[in-house]
Automatic annotation (TrEMBL):
One of its GO terms (molecular function) is nucleotidyltransferase activity. Its EC number is 5.4.2.9. Pfam families: NTP_transf_3 (PF12804), PEP_mutase (PF13714). Belongs to the isocitrate lyase/PEP mutase superfamily. PEP mutase family. This is phosphoenolpyruvate mutase. Keywords: Isomerase, Magnesium, Pyruvate. Residues 304-414 form the MobA-like NTP transferase domain.
Amino acid sequence: MLQNVHHYRPDRFTRLRDMLTSKEPRFLMEAHDGLSAKIAQEAGFEGLWASGLSISAALGVRDNNELSWTQVLAQLEYMNDAVDLPILVDGDTGYGNFNNFRRFVAKLCERGIAGVCIEDKLFPKTNSFLEGSQTLASVEEFCGKIKAGKDIQSHPDFSIVARIEALISGAGMEEALMRAAAYADAGADALVIHSKKADPDEILEFLDKWDHRVPVILIPTKYYRTPTKTLTDAGGSLVIWANHNMRAAMQAMRETCATIMRDQSLVAVEAEVAPLADVFALAGNEELERAEAQYLAAQPDTSAIILAASRGTELAELTRDRPKCMLNVRGATILDRQLSALTQNRVEDVAVIVGYRHEAVETGDARKLVNDAYETTGEVASLALARDMLTRPAIISYGDILFQPFFVDLLRGATGDFTLLVDPEGDRPDETGTRKPQDLVKCSAPFSGLGGAQRPALMEIADGLVGADGKWVGLMGCSARGARKLAEEIASLEEGGLLATADLPMLLTRLMARGEVVDVIYVTGNWVNVNDLADLSEARNAM
């Protein structure tokens, strides 16, 4: 009988340690953020070099310890979350003395970062390839950092790599070899011997003279013409490709920006850049879709009912052969834009209540329900045609409004049984009282700014309401209980002979009279109610 076998995969700490001590050539690829880390993993690299130069450049600062170690740690977390690869981080000079360094090591171990490399120069460091002084730290001080890091590490295979800058600084080969021996004795798990010469001679000399009591890592940024086999045959245990993802990205972005600036068009660059589908794939959108199917399935689906039965007579000839929900606003009808906003927020069970010229209404995948008596009945009679949908959370919308998709998200996230979106900057009655804007509201608290936990309750809703706190946008959300209460009130109106003439404000007023609480969420702008030609013009400019 076959037994289940657990295939053990060593953790990242152990995998990096195995790479350092391997008898075969091994390689680390530079990465500086989650995206570059994913691309390196996709290419087949088995480990990453989190370059201090590249991380600094990507964040727009110099490679002179202008980033704190906590800022570097934040970037490392994104990288570590993005891939299943061990990361060796460029720790510069350890961000200060032994105490700063051991705190850094402790946090790296907590975050699962497999190792750190520190260089034996003074804090703040200067990049090794810049001209000018490259003053070395004392051997004793640097050995103290190594010992402090080894004492604090919480994983036995966390690796501390000591980078020797003696050749960079001009101190010579004997200094480099002396420091190598001291750092190995202090507990370094590996060494980096660094050079900025274009030929590998001093690197090969070091490898020949070193006793290899600990492995040696090479960074051939300057002596890149040297065959890699020459370096590994000479005793290099690991090769780091140190900054090429960042430099490649810089070149590609420069070329793309220059082309777009010159052409004022995307035509010439579209075929040269990664397709959006590639971006979504690297970001892991498919996994999110699978997770949503698993974890959101238990949540009740939300339905939507769009009340679009009226003609819109104020729009004159534009609605002679179609209702106003089918008017075009910058390439899409009002209805299409509503349906798109709902779909973007995963509201897919939608009914559109039509009436005037219903044959001209295209509803796509949404159900079309016809109110044949649209000329003599109001909004609630139309809503009653979809009362079978009022058993679960629902969104109810006027059919002549345009709104940004996040409005739907606001309603879906509401916790009350009934929620209205109200614009505090909506129309008000004029001074003569002859103009009576529709659906004005008074609330338990006036608008006092967005972004807070403000959830006032609706107190009154009517046309031409004096002293109103705002105008109802025409979107309402209901919980499952709220939807059922709505259906019960529709039935009550029908029994009382009031269904034909009832509008939504009347329905809401009756619910409040029965003790139901109608919550209000204030929104400012981002919507248009299309009643006449001026509204249509505004919609075409604003949306």
